[in-house]
């Protein structure tokens, strides 16, 4: 072994040196404190200026988004203009702060710096979402409340997926408030011989008394007699399939050595949960099983959390008919 721990064979072979470098980069990526957020491209929006952002903390966005070298891409809807406001190669990791620089100078008057973005992280109980804060002098600020920023992994789940979407009008639908940190929701079902429990966007985690026998990775758990079965785990984030209509899907995959439940008739279990916004300010309902065949479970849940966030919030003490479907001053 020569100086610096590199063998003579490696020094003679550029391919071995390149392989060693790639392994080093992979190991570094796997050790990131925000690794759980790396598997997804995230959305945020500046509602005042109607600028929509795509964010990927660990990889470049597709070439269609700002040219293929961007980690944070901003789309100005009015100007129909795409611009990278943070390049993947210009990332700086700090404690609970990630900064993305670019090579393009700010054109604002008296500005002497490059266009860049800054993401601050705060401890939260779920995976959370990046929230646009403000932009000033070519600097774009975001805040992210998430479990990866907490000490000692106190809120870290086995598995969680993004639990929000933006519709075509740029309005946010966020099911994060439905996520349970322990236990699950009992699904309304006419079958008294089984109980189906679900959590939203993450595994059931620390069980409560009703879910104490559920497998640890399950987000959908079927209790049948004295047995508990994992019938679904979160793989992909929440999807928007229509106006105020959201879908979350769980699947259970089996290895060659694992046996599927006998009552599944050879099929792999799967769960589809459809969330709909109640019309006319109707009260929401409990999740309800609408169909089941060969361990494929379809659930409908009417809940105000499926509505866009403007429908649920007001920055004043006034609720309007157009925004909130009710008028209160």
UniProtKB/TrEMBL annotation:
Alphabetical UniProt keywords: Disulfide bond, Membrane, Signal, Transmembrane, Transmembrane helix, Transport
UniProt domain MRH: residue ranges: 36-152, 161-309
GO terms of biological process kind: lysosomal transport
Cellular localisation: Endomembrane system
Signal peptide: 1-28
Record-level GO cellular component terms: late endosome; plasma membrane; trans-Golgi network
UniProt entry tagged with the keyword RNA-binding: no
Keyword Oxidoreductase: no
Top-level division of the source organism's lineage: Eukaryota
Name of protein: MRH domain-containing protein
